[in-house]
Amino acid sequence: MLRIEGHTEDGQNVLNITKSVDVRKQMNRVINFNMPKYLSTGYYKITIDGQRGFSFHKEADLVYLSKTVSGLIQIDKPVFKPGDTVQFRVIVLDTELKPPSRVKTVQVMIRDPQNNVVRQWSSARLYAGVFENNLQIAPTSMLGMWNISVLEDGEVLVSKTFEVKKYVLYSFDVEVVPTVIPLEKHQSLNLTIAANYHFGKPVKGHVKVELYLEDDKRDQVKEFDVYGMGQVKLQYADFFTVHQDWEDVRVKTTFVEQYTSRTVVKESQITVYKHPYRVELIKESPQFRPGKPFKCTLQFRYHDGTPAKGVTGKVEVMEVGYETTGTTDDKGRILLELSPSDSTDTMVIYFSTEDDGFFFNEQVDKVEVLTDAYLKLELKSPIKLNRKLRLMVTCNERMTFFMYYIVSKGNIIDSGFMRPNRQNKYLLELDATEKMIPKAKIIVATVAKQTLINDFMDIDFEELHNNFELSIDKRNVKPGQQIELRMSGRPGAYVGLAAYDKSLLYYNANHDIFWEDVMQLFDGFHAIEENEFDMFHSTGLLVRTLDVIKFQGVPSKSARAGLQIYNPIHQSNQYRTNFLESWLWKNVTISRSGTRTIYEVVPDSTTTWYLTGFSIDPVYGLGIIKKPFQFTTIQPFYIVDSLPNSIKRGEVVELHFTLFNNFHTEYIAEVTLHNVFHQMEFIGRPMEDLSYTKSVSVPSRVGVPISFLVKARKLGEMAVRVNTTIKAGKEFDALEKVIRVTPESLLQHKIDSWFFCFDIYANDTFFINTDFKWPKSDEGSEKIELRLNREYHKM
Q1: By CB distance 3.0 to 4.6 Å, which of 90, 564, 707, 713 could disulfide with 131?
Q2: What's the average model confidence in pLDDT over 588-597?
Q3: What are phi and psi of 693, to 5 degrees?
Q4: HEC profile for 186-250?
Q5: From CA 69, how far away is CA 102, in angstroms rounded?
């Protein structure tokens, strides 16, 4: 008879379920208990009692995993300017990564940097587990980190932040990496600095590299010019000692683009190592058995992960009288076989070298010896859904039986009782079913010499029940042209798409949802405290058997090997005006055929884009692509702007552009800046001029700068329209952007607030005094904005 019972912390009984079951000899029986939908946190246990003369009584505590719903948030960008629109999706999932049937609505709140609730959805309805909406950020909104949080019954399921700031999206990035792995003996840092536009072209500029050592004091500074890539050696001013195995130093790199003075600052933590390699002791089991051989390996690796070959040193294990000089093989290993005596309680394995003072030691303790028998489970076939999994079960004792269990998502989804007919080896074949997705654990166990021995293996399918796939027809496309997106998945499933400029990753990458986020969410549902010496506990299982049968306290020998897991055409006379930082924020539905194809026009920017997608089906749950697609918008001849977000009226500024020629021949380009609606004045040119043309030679595959000196005449928005031609007009590019023109003086704010509340639906009229007095304000600069926040308070 089996009984599960539980009570709350105050002693109130909340669960009492009893079942009787008949387990015949050499049989496995699965007993299912249907738990109530709503259980409170408390203390739970299972009791097993023998009946009809069978003397057996066992109890075990149970852990109640109360978290059954969680979520993810996707935002279209990590950073926004005042006045932008934030688009977001909330995804709510259960433990099987499906839309939870009991959760129909959630609460969603957006807070500003001062924790004020700016927008609230008290009852946000989920469609296929997704709630999608947006927030218009006011032009005068508070700068800083904003927060989106999702609650269900008052409990926060998930939250995510985004930043509101005044920024310019840089078209290039700077990477700083060590040229060689830094070691203490070098007494210097060798760094490689790479500066490239996001569409792959090198950037010319000036770089300043500062090195900070102990106590964050600046030790070195060097400045030099870079065109795409450069190297620098920073010699330490004084001897730098690495006190532990490693120590981090700080490098601040400031890169200034030559022609626009746009600046990128990178802070890097560079690790300096004491020695050129590291050592790991790989043991056949966590503990040794006294009186039995113990095999282990000293694994040497360089800090880039490659095996360290030819390392020679002294190996000592004084407790067993072991001493030798060992040299690593081609795999960076020194293989050891130690012979502890019956009286050995512990072994300390030492390794040391004389030339560089390297030293390593690790202690291994004994385990109470129960049996010499072991069980080993090996995978002999690839892991493929709906195919056979072939596993070899090996025991050094002849097996009369063994049991297997398949555990996934905290449940035993299959089990069996096998009779190997006193063989040492048995080929176990199991079906790889959808119930095992995305991860499963296979456990085998038998009894040898009155001891329960076992082994296990993790099976990772690296896919989900909803096997969603996304592809695009080309990785290089001209700005403004059309791409084809092909999707496949479960018929009728919801699909969410997003694409954003790679330049945004300079600020943050946490706005999006990736495969790793989904796996982290899944693991969080089924997290069990790891126990190195109790494999069943680490799996979320408990085992109880007859008192005469002991449990093997150490995982079997196979554990030493680790886990074995095998279009519209872009016309040449058009101006490029669509320079979105994120786009394709779109939802579609998979058709009955299990596929869907859509066609989208890419923005006019020349950059690299990230494209992501996920799918949700009510039955099969979440599906997501493994990694974002990258594609580049580029053309043979084009112009790139480096314009500011805003300028002041009457201020003389230089408008910077860069020309790129991907042909094999140098050409003379004519570049014309247009004075749209007389909004600007060309410095040094007649006031009535409507355009200004310059000529410049553009070599092959080299960025050539060109600039125009102008002054804005009016407040508001100023159109910057520029076009360029080569090859007698056969190759052409043109773009148009808008720059805000602000007053010459400082911007001042005045905010008044009013609160409106009705007990019933009603219409009413309110008179608001907007006669704000601004002494000495600039003409035409006054602006009044009215913002209404509904559902600010939950009534």
Answers
A1: 90
A2: 95
A3: -115, 135
A4: HCEEEEEEEEEECCCCECEEEEEEEEECHHHCEEEEEEEEEECEEEEEEECCCCCCCCCCEEEEE
A5: 10
Note the pLDDT tens digit of each residue in 153-186.
Answer: 888 999 999 999 988 777 788 999 999 999 999 9
Two tokens, residue 37 = 């939908």
User: For the segment 631-685, what is each residue's pLDDT rounded down to a tens digit?
Assistant: 999 888 999 888 888 889 988 999 999 999 888 889 999 999 999 999 999 999 9
> Considering the entire predicted model, what is its pTM?
0.73
Write the pLDDT tens digit of every residue in 730-747. 888 999 999 989 887 766
C-alpha–C-alpha distance, residues 260 and 170, integer Å: 11
433: domain CATH number is: 2.60.40.1930
The arrangement of strands across the sheet holding 375-379 comes to 375-379, 388-399, 423-431
pLDDT of residue 550: 53
> Which structural domain, as residue segments, surrounds residue 254?
172-273
Q: Kindly state whether residues 516 and 663 are assigned to the same domain.
A: no
Please check whether residues 455 and 404 belong to one and the same domain: yes
Same domain for 144 and 181: no
Same domain, 623 and 495: yes
| CATH number of the domain bearing residue 499 | 2.20.130.20
Radius of gyration of the chain (CA): 34
pLDDT digits (tens, 9 = 90+) for 523-553: 887 765 555 445 555 555 556 555 545 555 5
74 plus 210 within the same structural domain:
no
- Residue that the structure tokens 């790129």 belong to: 660
Residue 766 lies in a domain: no
The confidence score (pLDDT) of residue 111 equals 94
Q: Which two tokens stand for residue 740?
A: 């805000």
Burial class (CB in 10 A: 0-12, 13-18, 19+), 739: buried
Place of tokens 């030790």: 219
Number of domains in the chain: 7
Beta carbons of 411 and 96 less than 8 angstroms apart: no
Q: Is 151 found in the same domain as 74?
A: yes
Rounded CA separation 361/635 (Å): 59
Is residue 400 a part of any domain in this protein?
A: yes
Q: How do strand 312-317 and strand 346-352 relate by DSSP bridges?
A: antiparallel
Could you write out the three-class secondary structure of 110-157?
EECCCCCEEEEEEEEECECCEEEEEEECCCCCCCEEEEEEEEECCEEE
Same domain, 594 and 610: yes
Residues with Cβ < 8 Å from 653, sequence gap 6 or more? 644, 647, 709, 710, 711, 712
Q: Please state, as a whole number, how many other Cβ atoms lie within 10 Å of the Cβ of residue 408.
A: 21
Tokens of residue 687, six digits:
């006031």
User: What tokens were used for 506?
Assistant: 């300079």
Give the separation between CA 651 and CA 341, rounded to whole angstroms.
87
Q: Are 66 and 39 in contact (CB under 8 A)?
A: yes
Q: Where are the alpha helices (DSSP H) in 271-372?
A: none
Q: H/E element holding 7? A: strand 2-7
- In-domain check, residue 600: yes
d(CA 318, CA 102): 63
- Where among 254, 273, 292 does a domain terminate? 273
Euclidean distance between CA atoms 346 and 361, whole angstroms: 13
State how far the Cα of 140 lies from the Cα of 663, in Å rounded to an integer: 46
> ω before 438 within 30° of 0 (cis)?
yes
Closest of 113, 132, 112, 129 to residue 121, by C-alpha: 132
CA 767/CA 138 separation, integer angstroms: 22
Parallel, antiparallel or unpaired: strands 704-712 and 680-682: antiparallel
